Amino acid sequence: MKGGIFYRGAIMTVLIFQTDRTPECKGAFLNETLKWAEQQQLDENLIIYLSNFTMYFNLLSMTPSMMLFIMPGMPPGVMFLSLLFIGISMLVSWRLKSKFKEYSEVPTSSGMTGKQIAEKMLRDNGIYDVQVVSVDGFLSDHYNPANKTVNLSPEVYSSASVAAAAVAAHECGHAVQHATSYRWLAMRSKLVPAVQISSGLVQWVLLGGILLVNGFPALLLGGIILFGVTTLFSVITLPVEFDASRRGLAWLNSAAIMRPQEFTKAKDALWWAAMTYVVAAVASIVTLFQYLMIYLGARNRD
Ligand SMILES: [Zn+2]
Questions:
Q1: How many A from CA of 156 to the centre of ligand 1?
Q2: I need a labelling partner for 82 at 20 to 30 A (CA). Which of 30, 54, 107, 273 fits?
Q3: What's the whole-model pTM score?
Q4: Residue 283 — very low, low, confident or very high, per pLDDT cuts 50/70/90?
Q5: 51 CA distance to ligand 1 middle (Å)
């Protein structure tokens, strides 16, 4: 590997971070980096890093054409895995969006809006100190344990559709988890500060670790540990998400708010939402494993 490549690689990575303003802007810089990476005939490990970097920061906006730029230097196994995960995650997010669009147009027979559903579910579970509020953004719904609010996107908050009811019940599922000190949610909340620290550092430490893998392998090991924290977080997220959906659906069923065919659709919508978390967790585990292989490979060469 030539010396100048180190600097240009690092500089381009900084540029991608700096242009965090809009996805389009970031995408254009990423395209430049990948084009340049192809011309340089980069080190195999650096190409794995760049492809994972692309996956992580542009999972939803990433296009297959971006991937094509890094193909030439990629080992076939890594190329196959990257394509597989891009394919699966694009498919799942497309499916989730189309399901939500479809079920947003199915009115509930009860005529209750997402807000009303959420408030009733909280009351039925004996929760009186949680506020239901509206926040901007598409699929931006979440429960915030810090200030005890169920945050619903405008679409979910004010519409009386099957999709809105499903999302509102799921978010209240998190509020019930919080109120009943559900173990996995508590564990997830405890990890948040560690994840915030490691996610700010991980890409830099990994980049440094890969560039210096032969002289200073401990840096890559540090990056792997930081990455491991975010992987652990995405794995602990799984039981939390599945359980919130289970609680939401159980309540929708017992409160007799939906007809059987509406309930089936609500269940389907939440299943696809859960699948996005599964894909993210599996992709994170596979990536962690790739970095571990690079580290072990370099160590065995010594
Ligand atoms: Zn959730």
A1: 14
A2: 273
A3: 0.80
A4: confident
A5: 28
